[in-house]
Amino acid sequence: MKTQQATSLKKQASNILDGIKKGEQAIRDNRVVSNAEAKKKMSNWLN
Asked: Is 38 exposed, middle or buried (0-12, 13-18, 19+ CB in 10 A)?
C-alpha cells in the first residue's frame, strides 16, 4: 500500500514539474496573455 502511495505522489510531482516546464517554455516563446486578456477570452466559458 505504501509503495502505491509513493508511486502516486511521485507521479503527481512529475506532472506538476511538467506543467511548470510547459509554462516556462510558453514564457520563453512569448505565448502568454495578460490576466485581463485571459478573462476576456474566457468570459464565454466563465459565465
From this structure: exposed
